[in-house]
UniProtKB/TrEMBL annotation:
Domain of life, per lineage: Bacteria
Biased composition (Low complexity): 96-112
Stretch list, region Disordered: 75-194
Protein name (database record): DUF1090 family protein
Taxonomic lineage from the root: Bacteria, Pseudomonadati, Pseudomonadota, Betaproteobacteria, Burkholderiales
Compositional bias segments (type: Basic and acidic residues): 149-173
Length: 194
């Protein structure tokens, strides 16, 4: 018992220096764990093992609490650093994109306007005479009527094929030869027959 009191007194009197890195925190944690493992082993040699172990567990938790808290602070600081770096990268990309867009716009404004492509004389639209326009309208109307008649014919053929399939199916059902199944009994009638 006197050894554990001396260890506690030494730990309490030692200045608590906050570690700066995860490695330092891990080293301090390992030292604390090792110290309390030795104390737990000493407890196993005593007559009252359980109270001694409980005391060691409580002191271990108290000793590890500041280290755990500092680990959390370091992790939060690392997250903030990564978030700031990501924000900086996004700003740099946006700035580069804005600069490229500005340069592209300046080039478009500085460049002379593109001339429309020259159209060959054969493709130049000419004013049509009314007779040619009427012939083209008549031709388009007759093509539309022919296409509509073709669509009607195909629809009639599809309907005829559907009627034939329905008739074949009904004929198969009639020639099947299997009698219809008997109906299920009424629920009230089955209870009354008991």
């Amino acid at each position: 018992m006197s050894l554990s009191i001396l260890v506690l007194a030494a730990a309490a009197s030692a200045p608590q220096i906050q570690p700066a890195t995860r490695a330092e925190v891990a080293a301090q944690r390992a030292a604390v764990e090792q110290r309390f493992e030795r104390e737990a082993a000493e407890c196993q040699q005593r007559f009252a093992v359980s109270p001694c172990l409980e005391d060691v567990r409580q002191r271990r938790q108290a000793a590890l609490a500041p280290l755990v808290r500092h680990e959390h602070e370091l992790a939060a600081e690392e997250r903030r650093g990564r978030a700031a770096a990501q924000t900086q990268r996004v700003k740099e990309r946006e700035l580069a994109a804005a600069q490229e867009e500005g340069q592209r716009r300046q080039q478009l404004l500085a460049a002379p306007p593109a001339e429309p492509p020259a159209v060959p004389a054969s493709h130049v639209t000419r004013a049509r005479n009314p007779e040619a326009a009427a012939r083209e309208r008549d031709k388009a109307a007759s093509q539309a009527q022919a296409q509509a008649a073709e669509r009607r014919e195909r629809a009639q053929q599809r309907q005829e094929r559907m009627r034939e399939r329905v008739a074949e199916n009904e004929a198969r059902q009639q020639h099947r030869g299997k009698p219809a199944a008997a109906p299920l009994p009424v629920p009230g009638a089955s209870a009354a027959s008991r």
